[in-house]
């Protein structure tokens, strides 16, 4: 697909860049929360630092169905 274009897509570099961007965003949120927590006496939960999981990931049946479809697609590929 990219033959003759002179450059290939480095998917690992792209994934690393996305991960680093996400980590930076979370660290910024944590720093802000720590500063705000020092200024107030109320305790906040730290469990939602990474954000809440999408609703469709909560259902185990849907997750197993997605896993089956992914495995079938991998076998075909």
UniProtKB/TrEMBL annotation:
<feature type="compositionally biased region" description="Polar residues">
    <location>
        <begin position="34"/>
        <end position="45"/>
    </location>
</feature>
<feature type="region of interest" description="Disordered">
    <location>
        <begin position="33"/>
        <end position="77"/>
    </location>
</feature>
<protein>
    <submittedName>
        <fullName>Uncharacterized protein</fullName>
    </submittedName>
</protein>
